[in-house]
Structure formats: structure tokens, C-alpha cells
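Shipment paperwork, digital attachment
Item: protein structure file
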Amino acid sequence: MRLLGYALAVMLAFTRAAAAGDGTWTQVDVWARGVQWVSNVERGAWVLGTAAGKDDGEWWSRASVLRTWQFGPEKAPWKLRAGVAARAEQIPAWEIEDHDLAHCLPADPDMCGALEFGARLSVDRWAEYGRWGTFVMADWISIDNAKLGVLGLTHLPSGIGGQISVWHEDGGEVTPTIMLSKSLTKRLSVRFGHKFVEDETFIGVSFSTY
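Attachment content:
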């Protein structure tokens, strides 16, 4: 953590505050054993990120508040985001001793939840090259040392896009995912993808005001 703090301080010294940006991006995905909702609300240099879902019968939710700095080309800058994060999740009763902030309902001792706080660091870039748009992102959350990498390519005239992502957190397996998307309107898109480790296929929609 100390080395991360030093690296972040150096990076921020050579970046500038992000230009004012206002927009909202939301996606909802469903699959046989679960559902997931993710949303980002950007106002100026600040981003409020929220997410919630149910997987294998257990609910979880996450929130973060991030400050944005940008560097690189003006038309396609890299955006560095850093801030705080929190996660609440449903856990089995036998895991309660593994968490500092955990509680079980008196009326139902098997219904337990845990709350954790941490830091979040993310960098992303959207760039357009003629008829194509590219998106890259790397995201890290100190809670369970969760890491996400994303690489996407979109054919702008047709609105058809493809994406490859890799997710990993402590205690889990590296999970690659592929996804295809198609814009239905200027703001609404449909999504279809597959997670290889869980062998789960999902379908969803996304909405953006950017």
C-alpha cells in the first residue's frame, strides 16, 4: 500500500484535473444463476460508482467515490481515477469471524452480512480512429485485491462492438469474459456475453447519456 501511495503521488504530479464532464452510464446483465447492475454517474471531475447483484443465491452491493485526473492527448486523454470504496455482501454464518464488520439478524441467524471499506484506483481511455472506437481500462479495488482489465473495439457506423475482460480477486480464479454489443438507439444498447470459468452466458442492456 505504501508503494502504491508513492506511485499515485508521482502520477498525480504530472496530470491535470479532468475537464468538466456530465453523464450517466448504466448496465444490467442477467444469467441463469444471477443478475448484476452497474452504474456510474459523472459530474465534473467526480464519479459516483454503484453496483449490486445476486450470484448463487447471495446478494452483494458496492459503491465508490472517485476523483478524476487526465493526461495525454486532449482529444483522447487517459483518465486516472482514485478514491474510496465500500462493499456490503451476504455471507454464510460460518464466515462471520473472517470479517471485522459483520452481523447476523437476530430473527434469522443464518442471514448474515458483512461491510468492508477500501481504496479504488482506475485508469481508462476512449479513442476514435476513423470508423473505429477503442476502449481500454484497468481497475483495482483493495477489498479482496480485486482487479479488472478491459479491452473493447466498436465499429462506429454500425454500433457493433466486441469486448474482452479479465477479472480476478483473492480466493477466486482468473475469469475471462467475452462480450458483443449492438446499439439500438443513440443511448441504448443490447449486450450478449459469456464467462468462461463459471461457464455462464449472460444477456443485458446498457444505457448511456455521454
